[in-house]
Amino acid sequence: MAEKLRIYPMFAVPMFHFSIDNWSENKKKILNALPPREKSPVFNKSNAMYSDYWTQTGENATFELPTYGPVILDIIEEYLVEFTKVIFEPDQVDGQGTWLGFTDMWYQTFTGGQEHDIHNHGYTGWSGVIYVEHDEDVHVPTHFYGQGYKAHGGYIEHFEPPVKEGDLIIFPSTVPHRAFVNASDTQRTIISFNMKSYQEKIREEIIFKFGEQAEEQKQQEEDKIFTPIPKKLILPN
User: Fold this and answer.
1) Cα dihedral value 161, 206, 73, 181, nearest 10
2) Tens digit of pLDDT per residue, the chain (237 long)?
3) Could you give the domains of the chain?
4) I need a surface site. Which of 84, 110, 125, 135 has the fewest CB within 10 A?
5) CA distances from 198 to 19, 60, 72, 87, 211 (A)
C-alpha cells in the first residue's frame, strides 16, 4: 500500500504588524523630533527626497542613533517587548530577559516622483518601518517579494501588508522590498531601522527583563566587558 501524500510548508517568512496607540499625539512627537526640511542632511532635488540615511549608514556614519532615536524608542518599546516574546524561546524570556541591538535608524520624506527600488537590508537580522505620514488614498504600502517562485508560471511571489498611518512592521532584513513611486504631491514619511537579536557592535542596546531574576540579570549585564554606547535598560513590570 502506497504511503499517504505528505505536504510540508517548507518555509515561512514572518512579518510583525502593530498599530501604535495614541497615534495623533505620537505623530506630533516624531515629526517635531525630525530635522526641519530646510535643514535636512540630504536633499535629493532630482526626486524630492529628504533623508539622513547617508549620514546614518556607511563609512562616515557616527556610532550613535540619530537625535530623534530616543523619541522613537520610547514610542515603540512596548511593541518591541511583544516582538521579543515571539522571536525568543520561552526559556529565554521567563526570567532571563531578551536583547535587541539597533544598528541603524533613519527617516525618509518624499513627494512627487520619488521611489525606492527593490533592495534588502542585508544580513542584519530584523528591519522595521514606521509609517509616519501615509495617505492610504494616494500612497502605496511597501511591497515585499518572496525568495522563491510560484510553481505555475515562474512568477515571484509578492505581498503588500495592509498598513495605515501609525503602523509599525518588523520583518527579516533579507526580504527584498520596494517603495513604489509616489505619484502625488502629498508628503510621505517613514522611519526605518535595523536590529540584531544577538550581541555585537551596535548603536543602542535594549534589554527587556522578565521575572524575579531581573535585577540579578541586570548586574550580570553591567559586569560584561562588552558595553555598547549608549545603553538603554528597560525593566517591564
Assistant:
1) -40
2) 567 888 887 888 899 999 999 999 999 999 999 988 766 655 555 556 777 877 766 666 666 788 999 999 999 999 998 898 888 765 555 555 677 888 889 998 887 777 777 888 888 899 999 999 999 998 989 999 987 777 777 778 888 999 999 999 999 999 998 887 788 888 899 999 999 887 665 666 676 666 555 556 555 555 443 344 344 444 343
3) 16-234 (2.60.120.10)
4) 135
5) 26, 24, 21, 12, 21
d(CA 178, CA 176): 7
Q: Which residues contact 183 (CB under 8 A, 6 or more apart)?
A: 112, 113, 138
- The length of the chain, given as a count of residues: 237
Longest dimension (CA), the chain: 75
Grid coordinates 518555509 are at which residue?
A: 11
Q: How many CA atoms lie within 13 A of 80 on its CB side?
A: 30
Give CA–CA dist 48/205, Å, rounded: 33
Nearest Cα to 197, choosing from 124, 144, 146? 124
Number of neighbouring beta carbons within 10 Å of residue 48: 16
Rounded distance between C-alpha atoms, residue 226 and residue 234, angstroms:
18
